[in-house]
Amino acid sequence: AAVPAGTLALLGTLLWAPWWVLDGAPLGELSGDQDFQLFLHKNLEFARKIKGDVAALQRVVCDTFQLCKEEELLLVRQDLGIPQAPLEQCHRRTFQAESCFSQIRDGLRTYHDSLAAVLELLPEHTGLVETLQLDAANLSSNIQQQMEDLGLATVTYPTEGPGPLPAFSSRFHHQVGGFFILANFQRFLETAYRALRHLACL
């Protein structure tokens, strides 16, 4: 079933606002499409699982390489060119459902590819990294399928800057790169999760 135009307009009104404003948003307007709500709740749980797996890998990087605090590594980060997948379409005034879901989908694909660097870094944790890659791919596919089911247009954003995997000049740079890939992925997931959660609560 297609999402009514009025519903999409309401999504735009809500999602550009600061997240604390959404806590007081009126409820009920988005509850009409049960398939959409089922999709949101199902993938909230999926996103929560992925966040937990990313956090587990961040603890491994901290324990293994003593890379734990982002502020101590910012100077090194400038040399690495680790991209942050954008999600500004999910909370800007010009919000459109197609654009937000497309950015979540594309970002998940980017991080799926970037995790190859983490896999090289932590061969003894191959199972966890590969599970994370599979989950990211599956969530991306879920969103693509839901967009098609809802009749939302697929939007593809051009890739900005370098590819997801820069060439690391040293083992240390590779370690720091893995740290920031995971840190960026966790931030991306937090934003995507908040977008899904507030839609599901309406």
TrEMBL record:
Q: Which organism is it from?
A: Nycticryphes semicollaris
For the keyword Secreted, the answer is yes
According to the record, the signal peptide region is 1-24
What's in the keyword line of the UniProt record?
Answer: Disulfide bond, Glycoprotein, Growth factor, Secreted, Signal
The record ties this protein, via PROSITE patterns, to: INTERLEUKIN_6 (PS00254)
Pfam families (alphabetical): GCSF
Where it sits in the cell: the answer is: Secreted
Top-rank lineage group of the source organism: Eukaryota
**Stated name of the protein:** MGF factor
Major localization class = secreted
Concerning its family, UniProt says: Belongs to the IL-6 superfamily.
Provide the GO biological process annotations: immune response; positive regulation of myeloid cell differentiation
Which InterPro entries does the UniProt entry name for this protein?
4_helix_cytokine-like_core (IPR009079), GCSF/MGF (IPR040117), IL-6/GCSF/MGF (IPR030474), IL6/GCSF/MGF_CS (IPR030473)
* Recorded name of the encoding gene: Mgf
Any one of the GO CC terms = extracellular region
Which GO terms of the molecular function aspect are on file? Answer: cytokine activity; granulocyte colony-stimulating factor receptor binding; growth factor activity
